[in-house]
Here is the input.
Amino acid sequence: MTTTLPATTATLLPDAAEVPRRQPVLPRIAWWAISICLAVLFLYPIGVMLSQVGPDDIAQIFDSSKGLSVVQSAGNSAFVSLVATGVAVLVSTLAGYAFAKLPYRGSRIAFFVTLVTFMVPFQAIITPLYLVLRDIGLQNNLLGVALVIATFNLPLGIFLMRNSFAAIPASLEEAAQIDGASAFSAMWRVMLPVAVPGLVSTALLSFFAAWNEFFAALILITDQSLYTLPVSIGILSADANFQLDFGLMQTGVAVTVIPCVIVYLVLQRYYVAGLLGGALK
Amino acid sequence: MSLPAFVLLGMFFIWPLIRTVTMSLHDWPLLGVPEFIGFDNYVKAFRDNQFLGAGAFTIFYTVVITPILLILSFALAFLVRRGTRAHRFFQTIYFLPVVIGLASGSYIWLFMWQSDIGPTTLLLGDLGLLDPRTNYFADFWSAFAIVVTMVTWKVVGLQMLLVLAGIQGIPEDVTEAARIDGANAWQSFWHITVPLLRPTLALVLVFSVDGSLLAFDQFYIMTTGGPAGSTITAVFQIYRTGFVQFDVGYASALSLILMLALGLVSLGQMLLLRNSDNS
Here is the structure.
């Protein structure tokens, strides 16, 4: 062996002449047919859900004779989601800014430790989490659930915010400092407006995670009147004999799903950018 | 400025993490006096048929759903990879179930497949394909198939998006060069696109494997672990141990075993990712 060719040139371009040529993979009509069939399959469950929402069920979502109603759970869900999102956005903006623009001794290690949190899902530490919340008086408390969900969204939020701030050129900051702004007001007045896309992504990711959270709410809340939507739907639609009222169930699901679909369709760009930013950068 | 983050992470992450370790070494009833018992909980775990069964089922579920998600997400991504208006329209639709919570999706599919009243059951009955009186959640294989289909519907759009981002990261001149050199679509896909997509592949694997190993909502809502406890996952078993049987010490030991398993899987996937960086 005298020469070693880079392996890539050998494998990347095989001899085309030996392989019979094929027709273009998908003619246009077939592409449309397949795409539309798939779209119908993807939308079918949503149609099933909507088809069950009748006037009786809509009247029933206000019925609190079971000590809880769909509307009341929606309120609990809204509280948890808004607090979790607010806390996650505020805390990850501060930390993201510090990690990107105010390096201190050990800040790289601190950032690394923050990211390691990604690796441990909260499902794995739920038992002590329950006891910790009990110790600090936040067990069976919506604020407690919101703080837990916010905490587990922090690594992604900090990561996104740090990337947003890091992308801002140093000259902008310097200009603000020359004008006599403190670090905090430099952040508030100059940096934050530039970092808005990252901020919206962080907020959307936190909101979807909190609004749809089932496991944490199921375990950390023991009082039925405090249940969030995903947990209460199953309980509300069951009667004393464990027979399920599927009309009410699907109406509850619709109340849960429709806000997410609207938010997604309106703010698609930010949500998708946030997902990819978290995954690929 | 990062202090609030550390306070939250310390209180709701590091403190409970440390407590998991100490609790796992105790016989710790939820409302009683803890007693130090060393590694007895771990010894018990590896002789506990319920836990071992739940672990085996979780692995089985992961092994079944991962290739399905992988293949379908690549297929969808290639179907809608171009930036035209029609492609973007279908991207939006295929991604839509991602914003629906796993619990909500479970409730919808639970209804769809109900005997006698579920729309899908009735539809397939009208077509003469299935008997609408069948209780699909009473049989392991049909219940399992419904859950796998539901989860695929719910998450394949997210993975499609990751693959799309990967495809867009491939410089166009590379595929262009191959085309000029006479490679057909299949050759160009297999020999150029796939190798360059290996980091994306690893990422998609991380998402689906970690998600499946932590599965809970879909089985809790749709199968309630049945029939006869055959669809109880690892997280489900931890939930039952800690919050139905109130044996939180043992639940902590099971949690640590799950965490260790996840850690090993992540390590394996990181090695895969690193290898693909080198190639």
Observations:
- Strands of chain B lie at 26-27, 35-36.
